[in-house]
Structure prediction request, 160 residues.
Amino acid sequence: MTSIEKQIKKLGLVLPEPSTPGGNYSSCNTRGNHVSVAIQFPIKNGEFLYQGKLGTDLDTEAGYQAMRLCGLNVLAQINKYFEVEQMEGLLHADIFYCGAEGWDDAPKVANGASDLFVEVLGEKGQHARAILGVHALPRQFSVGLAVTLVLRRRIPWIFA
Prediction:
């Protein structure tokens, strides 16, 4: 059991199966000691969840949980390729949301992932972030999350 899995279990959470790309791109890509994790959506073991617009179809709490699930999917991707001990830490998170006109709780929703990363990774989970409102996301997902992290040392190139 990896250290990410141990911490997830300690928190009473379950790490979902890592999703596979839905197109011609990789889920996780390294260049030197930087790793980019492709956008992750609120998918749990192949089931599409939290679809619709925040503020009409889903409330802020559902958005928070959707983003938390996206964060778990990011951790599942990281866990698939790296040990947390290899990580220097998260660098940046791009948080995407689809909200109704006038809905303005995006920072609260974004905290779903940010809180999770700190709970699971501790200091390594601290990150900068951008929150981006979009007209639509694939499969009518309400949120999406892409992350960049830094490893302690350069590793062989991964394109998976």
Observations:
- The chain has a mean pLDDT of 92.
- The CA atoms of residues 22 and 138 lie 10 Å apart.
- The two ends are 21 Å apart (CA to CA).
